[in-house]
Amino acid sequence: MKQRISLTLLFALSAILAATSVSAEEGGHPEIVRQPWSFSGFTGQFDTAQLQRGFQVYKDVCSNCHGLKRVAFRNLVQRGGPEFPEAAVKDLAKAWPNQITDGPNDEGKMFERPALLSDPIRGPYHNDQEARAAQNGALPPDLSLIARARNVERNPSWWIHPFLMLGDIAEAYQEGGADYIYALLNGFSDPPDGFKLVDGKFYNKVFPGHQISMPPPLTDGVVQYQDGTPSTVENYSRDVVAFLSWAADPSLDTRKQIGWQVILYLIVTTVLLYLGKKRIWASIKH
Ligand code: HEC
Predict the structure, then answer these.
(1) Do residues 71 and 96 make contact, with C-beta atoms less than 8 angstroms apart?
(2) Which residue's CA is the closest to the ligand 1 atom numbered 5?
């Protein structure tokens, strides 16, 4: 009993520390505020309408520079994702600007054809060199896994780290990448006085080094939402980040559902085993 109480206390302390120390500015790292994602925590799930809006932001803005090559058009139809109607996605694939190189045909030549449902969502460039040539030497990374490839950096004193980790476990916190990208998209501004910005770079308070080659991609009103959600940079970035989080982890919804079912099953099994054990040992002296 005593042990259980101290364990609970440890978790509570860790959760408080985790919550307070991320909001404090540490070691020159700017504050990255944790956002209230629909898919966070032990039970959170993706919001289909938000994923649809997020894809629209990706298509209208980000796809001008970034690819999404580990997501196929058919994934936009599947359950747990944006769940667009299949016919609409077929048309979207057909009209996608960067076509698929296929072949060779009967004359031995490679040819370009419109994308099918089974094809990946390509960015505007055929290869990294073409991308760099167009982007002033910088490479816009493929966004398929970016929400998992980035995280929030925290540099507290070494002894706080274990508590932060326990706090994250207690909260089931996994949205570091989402919080970072959200902060990145909202982190553009004029450089502070005395900051020397390299030509062709933009000041961003959360990007490591604060100089990024991506021009601020979002401005209020740049995407027209159909469902009445206000057209603000904040909403665009929240929605596109939710979409990118889905792209990087498309089975999150099912995984969490199955997780709970498994735990329920284990609880029932534990009760049954306990009752069985009591019964078997009832007539035996011990
Ligand atoms: C005009 C082209 C362009 C557009 C439009 C654009 N990006 Fe970028 N993006 C870039 C380039 C170039 C880089 C590489 C920056 C660097 O390495 O300095 C980049 C980098 C990134 C990164 C990686 C940052 C890091 O930590 O390494 C993310 C995330 C990102 N973009 C997200 C987006 C999202 C989301 C959108 C749409 C809302 C978008 N970008 C629109 C050009 C663009």
Answers:
(1) no
(2) 62
At residue 72's C-alpha, the angle toward residues 67 and 73, to 5°, is: 100
The ligand 1 atom nearest the CA atom of 208: 26
Atom of ligand 1 at shortest range from CA of 138:
12
Q: What is the pLDDT of residue 19?
A: 55
- Give the tens place of pLDDT for each residue, 141-179: 999 999 999 999 888 889 999 999 999 999 999 999 999
Read off the tokens for 146. Answer: 């970016």
Determine contact, residues 180/150, Cβ cutoff 8 Å.
yes
**Protein residue whose Cα sits closest to atom 2 of ligand 1:** 65
d(CA 205, CA 188): 7
Query: Mean pLDDT of successive 10-residue segments in the chain (286 residues)?
Result: 61 59 51 94 96 98 97 97 98 96 95 96 95 95 98 89 94 96 97 94 96 97 96 98 98 95 98 96 85
**What is the reported pLDDT for 285?**
81
Cβ atoms 108, 139 nearer than 8 A: no
Nearest CA to ligand 1 atom 21: 140
What single-letter amino acid sits at 156?
P
In this predicted structure, what is the pLDDT of residue 24? 43
Residue 214 Cβ inside 6 Å of ligand 1? The answer reads yes
Entry field: residues in the chain: 286
Using most ligand atoms within 8 A of CB, pick from 29, 64, 66 the residue to mutate for ligand 1.
Answer: 66
Q: Is the dihedral of CA 113, 118, 121, 126 positive or negative?
A: negative
Amino acid at 148: R
Residues 245 and 178: beta-carbon distance below 8 Å: yes
Work out which ligand 1 atom sits closest to the CA atom of 215. 1
- Residue with the nearest Cα to atom 37 of ligand 1? 62
- Of 65, 186, 238, 245, the residue with max ligand 1 atoms within 8 A of its CB, to mutate for a pocket test, comes to 65
